[in-house]
Amino acid sequence: MTTLQNLPADRLPDLLRGMPKAELHIHIEGSLEPELIFRMAQRNGLTLPYASVDDLRRAYAFTNLQSFLDIYYAGASVLLTEQDFYDMAWAYLERAKADHVVHAEIFFDPQTHTARGVSMQTVIQGLHRACEAARGALGVEATLILCFLRHLSEQDAFETLEQALPFRDQFIGVGLDSSELGHPPEKFAKVFARCRELGLRLVAHAGEEGPPAYVWSALDVLHVERIDHGVQSIQDPELMKRLARDRVPLTVCPLSNLKLCVFPRLADHNLRQLLDAGLAATVNSDDPAYFGGYMNANFTETFAATGLTTAHAYQLARNSFEASFVDAAAKAAYIERLDTFFATFQ
Ligand code: ADE
Ligand code: ZN
Question: What percent of the chain has pLDDT over 70?
Fold first, then answer.
């Protein structure tokens, strides 16, 4: 592997854009572009409380996580049919391919839909069909991770799991998302224990807005394998040591953190400190339709703002494959592809 130490600075954006990468933190409902929201509302006979695409886009001015979630759930309410879920996922997968994302592990929020009377089958099968089609048509490998909404009860999560189990072969794991503050991971200890028994892979949002204590309990109570966000871990030196020692992946989302005011400016983002402390950080888009950028925008804008280097680029792409939920042979094949890209880039 070359770290391309002599790469001219103006070639770095092309390297970032072209390198093969995995996306491990993308909420599929957060990829729903305003144009698609309007098209689906129209075909489903729904009226939106916004006059136009531009009017809706103007509402995308967030002050914190909750101010975003309110609009995000409203946007997702246009999804009714299996074709809607397919079309949403397909649009994302085409964008992923354009950004040289070769592997995506995609979050979905079934409770947002089942609470409106949409069946679990409609949700999962629409998304799963798009993932299957992407393998052949786009060369993108995609799998699904079911997220429980943490502002709802653990009982509701258990009922959601029951509804999803007939489709067990169509998702690889479970996660925990939505309003973080006031909803610590331990609220979901029992349902995560059950998911673990079922052999599901486990992840959770922790330390996005919430304290390092939430990252500790995601690790030690829920036994998750990756932390989504985790940027607040930097406040706790012991936690940083633990994350580095165990190479616990963090799925960091820089443009999301900027738009939700977790950091005042992209230049203040702590991605570089996380990497330099030996943490297995990755770059991801979270909710790209709402935060102003898909994967490559997250890479290029963050590198431009924080002065990350070619060596960091390689490390981030490599971390994304190492942190993915694929077997050792698939991981090795992805990393070989990455190494070939770096060895031949000019
Ligand atoms: N759901 C969608 N995006 C999210 C985020 N950034 N944090 C928590 N829940 C979410
Ligand atoms: Zn997220």
Answer: 99
